[in-house]
């Protein structure tokens, strides 16, 4: 049996997305059919539309989602129909060399559904990050479903599926920021704000937000920033050093991913401090640093992919923090929209007007 549902599709590179009727099959072995309740509009979806990920058009967009399991395929035991779940794009295999070493967040063989979702004419769709959740229903590997407390708002919970988890995890998992530490976060979009929120939860004493947009810097205070630096008006390196006794921050998160922001991060960390790159660079960017400085400053230079998260461990924990009032996921939801408003949401995101537009289904 197949299910005909409405979904947002990028048919060709650079063209505006459209709402199409698509076909979603019943789940096969190891798969789950999910009724999508909410899905955030992420920069990654725009990258897919622009051909910045690959050229496997048409794409079924959307990946930052929460919903309810409608059906499961043969052999599925980790979720059941009726479960409220957050979708993830890192369904670990449990058997590869990373999983065997106890580091499943580096899994080299993550799972996706094997059956294709298609346009009505049978054209296979490439689901964004193996999810494709700008749709009334989607088909995923069961491991891509993480059961969480259904008391959580679907609009807020779904954001753990990408941006919030990436930023929170960059600060807490990768950067290991802790009580009394100082942290600087360069770039205050959704990922950067989540890093700030994570640092606050972890007990950082000084949380410095860095951006070129005063609107974002004003917003950063509500997420936990103790200080702000507008790097278009002042030297960020000198400002951060001045705020940290002349030493630099214990942890610096680059949530932009440009050579100039990474260089700022490198020179604003304390000796033996940690730089975390979570902003995604474009393929053509190059970084040049004096190797003697890399050697002489010690510390750690790390990349954070999806916040080094393990969804089965981290999603329920962050939802608990949300329900306890310690992590305001609702604050990341700038607006709730319909499926046919995704293209407009891309424009708002590009202009920096929103943290997250969230499609409600």
UniProtKB/TrEMBL annotation:
E.C. no: 1.1.1.306
Q: Example GO molecular function term? A: mycothiol-dependent formaldehyde dehydrogenase activity
Cofactor(s) for this UniProt protein: Zn(2+)
Q: Which UniProt keywords are listed? A: Metal-binding, NAD, Oxidoreductase, Zinc
**Which residue range or ranges hold the Enoyl reductase (ER) domain?**
14-359
Any one Gene Ontology cellular component term annotated for this protein: cytosol
Q: Which domain of life is it from?
A: Bacteria
Task: Give the Gene3D superfamilies listed for this entry.
Answer: Medium-chain alcohol dehydrogenases, catalytic domain, NAD(P)-binding Rossmann-like Domain
Question: Could you tell me the Gene Ontology terms of the biological process aspect for this record?
Answer: formaldehyde catabolic process
What InterPro entries does its record include?
A: ADH-like_C, ADH-like_N, ADH_Zn_CS, ER, GroES-like_sf, MycoS_dep_FDH, NAD(P)-bd_dom_sf
So what family is this one in? Belongs to the zinc-containing alcohol dehydrogenase family.
Q: Protein name, please?
A: S-(Hydroxymethyl)mycothiol dehydrogenase
Q: Which organism is it from?
A: Streptomyces phyllanthi
């Amino acid at each position: 049996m197949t299910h005909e549902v409405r979904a947002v599709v990028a048919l060709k590179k650079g063209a505006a997305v459209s709402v199409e009727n698509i076909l979603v099959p019943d789940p096969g072995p190891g798969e789950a059919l999910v009724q999508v309740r909410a899905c955030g509009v992420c920069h990654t979806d725009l990258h897919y539309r622009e051909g910045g990920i690959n050229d496997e058009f048409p794409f079924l967009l959307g990946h930052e989602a929460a919903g309810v399991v409608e059906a499961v395929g043969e052999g599925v035991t980790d979720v059941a129909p009726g479960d409220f779940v957050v979708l993830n794009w890192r369904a670990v295999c449990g058997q590869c060399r990373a999983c065997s070493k106890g580091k499943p967040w580096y899994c080299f063989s993550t799972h996706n559904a094997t059956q294709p979702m298609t346009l009505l004419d049978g054209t296979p769709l490439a689901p964004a990050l193996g999810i494709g959740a700008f749709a009334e229903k989607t088909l995923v590997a069961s491991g891509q479903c993480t059961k969480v407390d259904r008391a959580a708002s679907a609009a807020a919970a779904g954001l753990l599926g990408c941006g919030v988890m990436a930023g929170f995890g960059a600060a807490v998992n990768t950067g290991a920021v802790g009580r009394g530490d100082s942290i600087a976060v360069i770039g205050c979009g959704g990922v950067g704000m989540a890093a700030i929120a994570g640092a606050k939860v972890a007990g950082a004493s000084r949380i410095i937000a860095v951006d070129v947009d005063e609107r974002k810097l004003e917003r950063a205070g509500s997420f936990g920033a103790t200080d702000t630096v507008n790097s278009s008006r002042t030297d960020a390196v000198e400002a951060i050093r001045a705020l940290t006794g002349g030493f630099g921050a214990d942890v610096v998160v680059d949530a932009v991913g440009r050579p100039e922001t990474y260089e700022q991060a490198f020179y604003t960390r304390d000796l033996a401090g940690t730089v975390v790159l979570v902003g995604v660079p474009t393929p053509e960017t190059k970084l040049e640093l004096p190797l003697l400085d890399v050697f002489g400053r010690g510390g750690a230079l790390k990349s954070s992919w999806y916040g080094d998260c393990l969804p089965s461990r981290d999603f329920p924990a962050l939802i608990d923090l949300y329900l306890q009032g310690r992590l305001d996921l609702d604050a990341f939801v700038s607006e709730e929209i319909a499926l046919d408003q995704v293209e407009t949401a891309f424009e708002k995101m590009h202009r920096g007007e929103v943290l997250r537009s969230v499609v409600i289904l």
